Amino acid sequence: MSESSANRKLTTILSADAAGYSRLTGDDEEATHATLNAYRELVQELIGAYGGRVFGGAGDSVMAEFPSPVEAVRSAIAIQEALAERNAELPPKRRMQFRIGINLGDVIVESHGLYGDSVNIAARLQALAAPGDICISEIVQQQVANKLDRPLRPLGRHEVKNIAEPVSVFSVLGTTSVGAGKVRLLALALALVVAASGAIAWWWLQTEPRLPSPEPAADVTEAARPSRHFTVGNPAKLAAADALTIYDRIREAMAEMYSRSGNTYMGQYQTWRRYNSAPYRSATHGRRFVSNYANPTARAYGRFPSAGTLPVGSVLVKDSFEVTARGDVVTGPLSIMEKMAPGFNADSRDWRYTQIMPNGEIFGVTKGENADRVTFCIGCHRSAGDANDHLYFVPKKYRRQFFETPAPSTQ
Questions:
Q1: I need a labelling partner for 81 at 20 to 30 A (CA). Which of 17, 70, 102, 246 fits?
Q2: What average pLDDT score do residues 242-253 get?
């Protein structure tokens, strides 16, 4: 196909990759592979939560597109903050940081991906970013400058590989606590960068991850995030009882929004057993508060790690909500796992995954609508292992136990 006859569109490209992946692999190949799989799942989850779509990437990289540059940057900020929280739980030598680049421009659309200078520029911006940071092009900066409650630091114009004109670059500040060394100062000699990197990394490792920046109330009513229910005080210190109170107030409204998808389970899932005593923050679901439901066929799920392989017809549903830094309570995506007949999909142990957005839009279904969007679910749950039937379970402190009533004796 010639360039003149190619299908084209304007879109926002996000490019992300893991910094220092080769070093981490050399230190501990299996642990690095497990961390990368978990982090890629989290990155892809947060891309989807902000209306993005993953279209490429291999190994330690991810390429995604967004219809909105504002949502692309918000997604990148959420990714960096979530990864900082994850890294805080790992030994310093095992921490994996991502670099992110974002560009807006015209791309060539083909069935197997997006191509063109706009995609390449996003990749070059990602390469310019310091680990844990986000670099954006000038055109993205112009679109988001008055819509983010954080400063953007100009890094000047840079020559980048295979791009004819220099690119104006901006750093998105405040995504991780790396102090003054957050921006890679390309004008310094390589020796100075190497010398400074150890001190910068030490400073970052001593600091707590920062909370997400407040989101203006008017901005959380967009199509993909329609339900700002109310605002709570002191959101950084929510106890389990607070999360449960919030959930009890909003769960019917959440179910009503999810029901707009037309999915038959949405009108009934909240009548099933809920296996968590209170909503809890899930690292694999963007640190949102989640609740886990199972239909009667899946009651063995309540045995948690002893559940074994669940029978055909088992359905697990996980709804979610988030509380922003300013205290806005907002509906999150909903995830469904359905155990299908043997032979449905060997890679997923015959689980069919469905994700529904807060506005009722179906984000993706295994072997169905936008199936490529939920392939990361299969990869994430595969890491739970065949012995666990690809299932993750409620954290111990939140587990509810149900005692089955013995069947009456027939003797």
A1: 246
A2: 90
